[in-house]
Amino acid sequence: MPYQGSRESAQKKIMAVIDEMPRTKVLKDKENYIHVTFTTRIMRYVDDVEFYLPADDKLIHFRSASRLGYSDMGKNRERMNTVKEKFAKQ
Fold first, then answer.
1. What's the pLDDT tens digit per position in 1-40?
2. Strand pairing report for 33-39 and 46-52
3. The model's pTM
4. Most C-beta atoms within 10 A of its C-beta, which of 2, 22, 46, 60?
5. Phi, psi at residue 59, to the nearest 5°?
């Protein structure tokens, strides 16, 4: 996901997006890396989401994965599309 401006401001924008989303827990927020868990509303499954912001790139790399390893019915893709949309509006 591309961004403009500094890495620090992009990371703050990602954190602002995460703060707006329900059932989240930030496990790590360091210089160029964020690790968050999202808990699904009904079944209470925990998904891991990671963001990496390399110093020499104007891209945010991310992944979202279910801890169970079963089909998530597209929930991780949907969540990351929501993050991208909200990030673009910040």
1. 999 999 999 999 999 999 999 999 999 999 999 999 999 8
2. antiparallel
3. 0.89
4. 60
5. -125, 145
